[in-house]
Amino acid sequence: MEIADIQSLATRIKQNVQTVIIGKEEVIDQLVIALLSSSHVLLDDVPGMGKTLLANSLSQSISGKFKRLQFTPDLLPSDVTGIHFFNQKNGEFEFREGPIFTNILLADEINRATPRTQSSLLEAMEEKQVSIDGETHTLGKPFMVIATQNPVESQGTFPLPEAQLDRFLMKIEMGYPSKEEGISILKRFKQGSPIGKIEPVASQDEVVAAQKLYSNVHVSDDLLDYIIQIVEATRNHDEIELGVSPRGSQALLKAVQVYAILQGRSYVLPDDIKAMAKPVLAHRLVIDEMTKLKVGYEHELLDSIIEKIAVPSEEELLKGVE
To answer: Of 4, 116, 182, 285, most Cβ neighbours within 10 A?
Structure first.
């Protein structure tokens, strides 16, 4: 598989998802970027915006297994990962897989579960495996968690800790459709949901192959320095209590490499970093409680940081590009 093949794969998946989801081109792009970079996404929006439909459409597009798990306060870690149960017929313990053994897991309203249950996802998201009763079980490939949460509800919820937020490549807000998109949605769904008619356009093997090769996209040393300058600026900003971690800088690198492929290039440009900086870094910033009251202020902070950092020259960026 070559870079052009990954772009073709991404385009097929995106166009297939758009047969169900009206508009939201940027959101779908970001979801495909997370998939191809073997990462996870947090969808942060009010109910009824099509988050479940979006996740299911993506799964069916790649011939993947899709499981939806409703997170509630009484959900236990074993309800996520699975349990060992005693089979009386065989007279021995057997492992019963939990819903995490899938290709795409929709962790619906993840912030309604207790921190203990939320943390049951951490090992799976980071290492693609789960440990149960001292035994390690490897998850299938591809594996992706798409978690959702409702930002306007706080009663009966447990906010995600920074350690877990840091494991999501991006935090995405879908937003309301435009008037024209709303009319198109009504027309498309008036005879029933089109999700039942969606056909696979890619195989799981193709996705796994792309996940292994996207890192071949060229990133100049100057752009690596540019990324680190942005990250370090978040760590030394007066209004930011805790800046972006090394995991966050690695996440930005992965995202921009896949983003460049979607633009038809085998090399990264500064505009790719600017495009990915806010969805990848904003949710990793820890700011004081009073500042949090200003919705979207993290994005404003990142904009101000990026504006102050000098962009590398194009001649230096393209050194080493074949």
So the answer is: 285
- What are the tens digits of pLDDT across the range 237-263? 888 888 899 999 999 999 999 999 999
Single-letter amino acid code for the residue at 275: A
Helix (H, G, I), strand (E, B) or coil at 152: coil
Domain final position from 155, 189, 223: 189
Those residues whose C-beta lies under 8 Å from the C-beta of residue 169, and which sit 6 or more positions away, are 33, 34, 37, 39, 40, 41, 251, 254, 255, 280
Could you tell me the CATH number of the domain that includes residue 22? 3.40.50.300
Find all residues with CB under 8 Å of 291, minimum gap 6, and list them: 239, 297
Q: What DSSP string runs through 236-270?
A: T-TTEEE---HHHHHHHHHHHHHHHHHTT-SB--H
In a domain, 147, yes or no: yes
Asked if residue 72 and residue 174 are part of one domain, the reply reads yes
Cα gap 243→166, rounded to integer Å: 11
- pTM value is 0.89
> What's the number of domains the chain is made of?
2
